[in-house]
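Table S2 (text version). Query chain:
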Amino acid sequence: MDSIVNIALLIAQSIIMFSLGIGLEVKDFKRVLERKKVVGIALIAQVLVLPVLAYLTVHLFSFPPMYAAGLMILSFCPGGVTSNIISKMAKGDVALSVSLTAVTSILAFVSVPFLVALSVTHFLGDALTEYSFSKIALVTFLITTTPVSLGVLFRHFKTSAALRIERGLERLAYVLWSIIVIGAFASAWETVEANFGKIGPGLLFLPIVMTCLGLLIGRMSHLSRTESKTLAIEASIQNSPMALTLAVLISGVSSALPDLALPAAVYSLTMYAVAFPSVLLLRRWGDGPKANPAPAYELDG
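Corresponding structure-token output:
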């Protein structure tokens, strides 16, 4: 039964990431080269500042080792398609959001396995014997880099077909995302309820501070208001289904939500509890029509 659940998680997460790839075009990657400074600053915030803040959070709020490792795993998982939608809702720089999603999803194969293995070893030592670096690398490749790359290639070579299925695939991705998160809560509601007091404050603290830091880093780096709020959203929204999938596979337990996956499950709620009020506050905080010369990018919906 455990193997069936593991396979289902892999398939669901792969479909989510394939739907992300379908929505990407080659120009989204080219735009990275055209906007090196903006993308570089945003990547530093998402790939470096967020994990450092997560590390500080687990110590500041005295997370037990298993939950500390789980939060670090989450901090390494790039935002995904959800951050693109939230950026659009906040009237952010959606072109920047999409480009960041494209880059971090492809680079995940390089960064995630090493950092996850390092964190698990640091916080848990030999407490977990099921995982291996090669297993994490293979899973990351299967659920991020491969499906995203296939989606981009499909969009490039079969554009008309990709456009026909894009909307339906996006909706399927959100359904699968919901099933993964709701299923995680349903399988361990008592555990979530019993431990929320231990990790809930920290999992609210992280997205709040990261949102503020994103805005601050953007403005101190002389980015526009629109770019700065996009950076804040990208840096605080993480791919919780990916983190849940990795945690379940590393733990070797799928009949119930493993403790290693609990921070990702709770963060899937707390990050939106912070993101949606932020959207309301930031929607009108933007630039004049000439302040941001980047090409416009529209998402269907």
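Notes on Table S2: Confidence is low (pLDDT under 50) at residues 290-301. The radius of gyration is 18 Å.
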